[in-house]
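User: I'm preparing a small set of examples for a lab meeting where we compare how different chains pack in three dimensions. I only have the primary sequence for this one, and I'd like the structure in token form so I can line it up with the others. Please keep the answer compact; I'll paste it straight into my notes.
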Amino acid sequence: MSGAELIAVAFVAASAGTLGTMLGLGGGVFLVPILTLAFGIDLKVAVAASAIAIVANSCAGSGVYLIRRFTNLRLALLMLVSSTLGALVGGLLAVSLPEPVLKGTFALVLLSVAYAMARRKPLRQQSVDDTQQPDPLAISGHYYDPALDRFVRYTPRRLRIAIPTSTTAGLASGMFGIGGGPIIVPLMNILMGVPLKAAAGTSAFMVGLTASASAMVYYTRGYVDPRVTMAAVFGIVGGAHLGTRVASRIRPAMLGHIFVIVLVVLAISMVLDAVGVIS
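Assistant: Understood. Below is the structure token output for the 279-residue chain.
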């Protein structure tokens, strides 16, 4: 790639990092299809670059979420074991599949997540004094939301279903270099009753550790392009700083709308590319 193309990759990665960090997705869900569709980069090379960039993005973006208490560390650690194992399996599976199959599967994942988020019912925003939900594992959390000008308290539910299901997020991370955020965020928000900002903050912490497992698989198989990866890392880290600051001031409903619209557009583009309509 030329120097101008690498600068363009860095700019795209910065945009993906901003939006991805705002939504707790790590940026890969936006970066991978754009690198493939706009720059003609091999999907597996794009996935490898995204996985490494997500690790850097998570390190850069998680700090602000931790300070603002959006991140639920206890919940993240509970779910990381299964999601990391899934990432290893996903990485090994992806390197053996044809690229059109990967693109089509990626598009289906994006559309499924977008549909689930669009159909979700608004969650009740609990006040800090609401202690009605049982919390045997001490994983409840609370934070101050500047956009709502109030404290929000929540207690994650349905752990027996959610923790094994997080393996699916790891599988998607390994196959598509997306860090698992597009599945982790809706899983926490819809199934577990975690407010969207807390789900995004917790996911932002998790995705880096999950992506690091699959990144090793792609590295050992020779899919890491140093130039593309460095451009993606520099861009996505810069975008992460902006994303964490913007996210705290945006109303949760708006975050959800942005999430759904972007995923649908990218999914349709990936389908068209997989069948050869666009290249």
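A couple of notes for your slides: The two ends are 17 Å apart (CA to CA). The chain has a mean pLDDT of 81.

User: Perfect, thanks.
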